[in-house]
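Summary for the steering committee. One of the milestones for this cycle was to obtain a three-dimensional model of the protein with iron/sulfur cluster bound, which we needed before selecting residues for the alanine scan. The sequence and ligand used are listed below.
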Amino acid sequence: MADPSAKHPENAPGKFYVDENCGGCQVCIGTAPENFQMTDDDDHAYVVKQPANDEELEACQEAMDSCPDEAIGDDGE
Ligand code: SF4
């Protein structure tokens, strides 16, 4: 379970976020490329844009379910 108090500062404000448990596997980038991005040094992923339609929302939920480090949360603000 991701922790909203440990989310990376790069995350776009809103529901979805990536926290400090992210190991940088890039699965979320492949699953929801509109919404997740790696940092410039490829250290970790972050939410670059909150989902803007049902398709992106589904992709973000799938990314959250697929994250091997359980580093994606949907209880952000
Ligand atoms: S799927 Fe999870 S561990 Fe992999 S890059 Fe995305 S947030 Fe990080």
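Key point for the committee: The longest helix spans residues 54-66.
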